[in-house]
Amino acid sequence: MALPTMSGNRRRGYTLVEIIIVITIISILVSVAVPLYQRSIQRTKESVLRSNLFTLRSVIDEYTYDKQKAPQSLEDLVREGYLRQVPEDPIVGDNRSWKIVMEDSLTMVNQTEPGIFNVFSSSNKVSLEGTPYSDW
To answer: Is the pTM of the predicted complex or chain greater than 0.70?
Structure first.
């Protein structure tokens, strides 16, 4: 009976140092990827906000031109068929939180009923470019 040699008695597997190195590399990659992912999510929300604001402002102008008076609420736009539903403010996450600017008496189309003149986000957060969302 022959004794096992050193080469035949080797164990297969990874050493603790190799595992620590792999975990360190993975954690570095994750620490770089997560902020980039969060920033891309924020850019997407900003893009959706710009689009929703453009749509709302265009529809308010169309309604005002067609009806010869400004809408009294955003639900008027849905009720009259200008929108399927009031779009969501993606920064706030709600479609009822829009900051509405009513007409002043000098710019009113119909002098008896002031209506919606403009719409802004109600968020108090600042965009990636440094401007408040409520100023867009």
So the answer is: yes
